[in-house]
Design goal:
This protein is of the alpha+beta class and 155 residues long. Helix content is 45%, strand content 26%. It is elongated.
Length: 155
């Protein structure tokens, strides 16, 4: 018996929403969770646990990789009753953020909830992340200094 090949469009969508959930603050995820009228029951497959991950870098983005240092990460896995298993890995030590990100991941895997959650949760979070990125870029651009060389009249 051969298994079905993974649906790449769903895989890319999941990668997108998991990235957005990981980049969102714990407070924003908590606020979205509080808006749910009927919160689905879930159980931990793996309760939130914090550990370290080695962060690697490249000089100039293209050079030889080197170990930059360690970063705290928190991971969590949940199973939503009557639904799928959700997973999350977030930067930092916020266990509740990892828990909620995993729950939202599981809920987004449910085809009957996906469109509404994509519209009401993922898209607003993505827009907020982009707005923060633009604000930071604008602030950095205001400090930009253009250097140029003047050619003296002497040869």
């Amino acid at each position: 018996m051969q298994s079905e090949p993974p649906d790449l469009s769903t895989s890319r969508q999941r990668q997108r929403w998991m990235t957005i959930l990981a980049k969102t603050s714990g407070e924003d995820l908590e606020a979205l969770w509080e808006r749910f009228d009927t919160k689905p029951a879930y159980r931990f497959l793996r309760p939130p646990e914090t550990g370290l991950a080695m962060v690697r870098g490249r000089a100039g983005g293209t050079g030889q990789p080197f170990n930059l240092g360690e970063a705290s990460i928190t991971r969590c896995a949940v199973h939503v009753s009557g639904g799928a298993a959700g997973f999350a890995v977030v930067l930092g030590r916020d266990e509740r953020k990892a828990e909620l990100a995993a729950v939202f991941d599981a809920l987004l895997l449910d085809p009957s909830r996906n469109a509404a959650l994509e519209r009401d949760v993922v898209k607003p979070l993505e827009d907020a992340i982009e707005a923060r990125r633009r604000a930071c870029a604008t602030k950095a651009a205001a400090t930009k200094v253009d250097f140029f060389t003047l050619v003296r009249g002497e040869d």
